[in-house]
What we know:
By secondary structure, the chain is of the alpha+beta class. The chain is 39% helix and 32% strand. Strands 1-2-3-4-5 form a five-stranded antiparallel β-sheet, covered by helices on one side. A hairpin with a 5-residue loop joins strand 4 and strand 5. Helix 1 runs antiparallel to helix 3 (118-147).
Amino acid sequence: MRTAPRLGTVNGFGRTMLGKTRPDAQGACFATHWFTMLMLPIRPLGRYYVKEGETVDVSGRHGSSTSTTQYVFLGRAELRMSEVIRTYLFCWLVAPLVIAGPVTLFGINSDAFSHAHPIVFIVLLLAIPIVCMIALAWMLVLNEKFLAPARIPQWVEAGPANRRD
Length: 165
């Protein structure tokens, strides 16, 4: 590889790595480089064989903080439509259902429940989204550790470079 792709998001807009496969014996995996809007994948930009480095937390102004994961790019690969579709399905369908589904079901019956048990209603109103986000995070961890397919890189010889003399 000549250069690594640019990564970085601001408020969910930018470029990030998603759809990682399970790490191989060397700790490297395949990941797809995405253009995102509001943390949702819009367009795949490329697929790379990467080794995930350390995650650095950086404090910003006004008490904000951000975390940055560093990657070592080992090679470039062809996009796999199965991984692109899996990422779209997870980010556009599964994640919203896990977070919004229980909140919506709770909201449908909230009128009667809020009058009968106001303290329990407030606790559940705050707890349900938090529990759903924790469940989503566990789904991501389980997917990366156990469900995502392990792919083994097969290196090929590079062809002659196109040069103009």
